[in-house]
């Protein structure tokens, strides 16, 4: 099959390709000509390794993520399951109220599972979630890391709050529904995380 470029970013390109006869997604990290070759190679390799680790750990925490078929550290390529579904960004506004609330709660539960395992996604937006048969898959852990800090959890959720405000502003309750799911599932003090989100909002206001 011929390859199809889905997305070209500063750090990587996302390509629909084929692997062992399967339709797959490949995330190919981009080499930077301005970096010293050895440093460039090291950064590509280490970031690819870290993202693969986070995806594997997210799966262990019970979060839906694409299956990893191959990890090429030298070339900086992750070969993953092609998810036949809809980007949450494209469909959330179109759902009926009941289903939208249910899905937002599920999003909150999944984020709580990530945070329970010390996983910070780093870019939680509805562009990075795919709905497949009522399951919400989280993709693109390229900005993710491991952290036990309340601040990191608050920032993670604040990114999603901002995404809702900009892309799904007609449904202002969405983030509240996310927090409901989060509170039910987060294994530590959810109130401390929610207070941190409020603090981050205030910081932004008084800059």
Describe the structure.
The chain is an alpha+beta fold and 207 residues long. The chain has 2 domains: 4-81, Phosphorylase Kinase, domain 1, CATH 3.30.200.20; 86-205, Transferase(Phosphotransferase) domain 1 (Transferase(Phosphotransferase), domain 1, Orthogonal Bundle), CATH 1.10.510. It is built from 6 helices and 10 strands. It has helices at 37-60, 88-91, 97-116, 150-167, 174-185, 190-205, and strands at residues 4-8, 12-19, 22-29, 68-72, 77-81, 86-87, 119-120, 129-132, 135-138, 145-146. The strands form 3 sheets. The protein has a 5-stranded antiparallel sheet, covered by helices on one side. A 3-stranded antiparallel sheet has the order 6-8-9. Helix 3 (97-116) crosses helix 5 (174-185) and helix 4 crosses helix 6 (190-205). The model has no long low-confidence stretch (mean pLDDT 94).
Brief account:
Helix content is 45%, strand content 22%.
Reading the helices and strands in chain order gives EEEHEEEHHEEEEHHH
Distance between the termini: 51 Å
C-alpha Rg, in Å? 18 Å
Q: Strand order, main sheet: write it out.
A: 1-2-3-5-4
Fraction of residues in helix: 40-55%
State mean pLDDT (0 to 100 scale): 94
Tally of distinct domains: 2
Topology, number of strands: 10
What portion of the residues fall into strands of 2 or more residues?
Answer: 15-25%
CATH topology of the largest domain: Transferase(Phosphotransferase), domain 1
- Could you describe the largest sheet, including whether it forms a barrel? 5 strands, antiparallel
Number of helices: 6
Unreliably modeled segments: none
CATH architecture of the largest domain: Orthogonal Bundle
Going by CATH, what is the homologous superfamily of the largest domain? Answer: Transferase(Phosphotransferase) domain 1
Q: Which shape, going by the Cα principal axes?
A: globular
User: Which CATH first-tier class of the largest domain would you pick?
Assistant: Mainly Alpha
> Which class do the helix and strand fractions yield?
alpha+beta
């Amino acid at each position: 099959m011929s390859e199809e470029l889905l997305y070209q970013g500063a750090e990587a390109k996302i390509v629909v390709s084929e692997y062992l006869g399967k339709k797959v997604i490949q995330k190919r990290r981009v080499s930077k000509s301005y970096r010293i070759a050895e440093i460039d190679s090291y950064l590509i390799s280490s970031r690819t390794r870290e993202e693969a680790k986070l995806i594997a750990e997210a799966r262990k925490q019970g979060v839906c993520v694409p299956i990893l078929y191959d990890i090429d550290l030298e070339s900086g390529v992750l070969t993953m399951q092609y998810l036949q579904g809809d980007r949450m960004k494209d469909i959330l506004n179109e759902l009926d109220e009941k289903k939208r609330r249910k899905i937002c709660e599920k999003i909150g539960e999944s984020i709580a599972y990530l945070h329970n395992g010390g996983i910070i996604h780093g870019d939680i937006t509805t562009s990075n979630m795919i709905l497949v048969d009522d399951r919400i898959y989280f993709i693109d852990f390229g900005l993710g890391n491991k952290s036990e800090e309340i601040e990191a959890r608050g920032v993670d959720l604040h990114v999603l709050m901002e995404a809702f405000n900009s892309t799904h502003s007609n449904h202002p309750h969405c983030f509240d529904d996310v927090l409901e799911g989060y509170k039910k599932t987060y294994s530590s003090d959810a109130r401390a995380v929610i207070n941190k989100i409020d603090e981050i909002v205030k910081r932004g206001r008084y800059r």
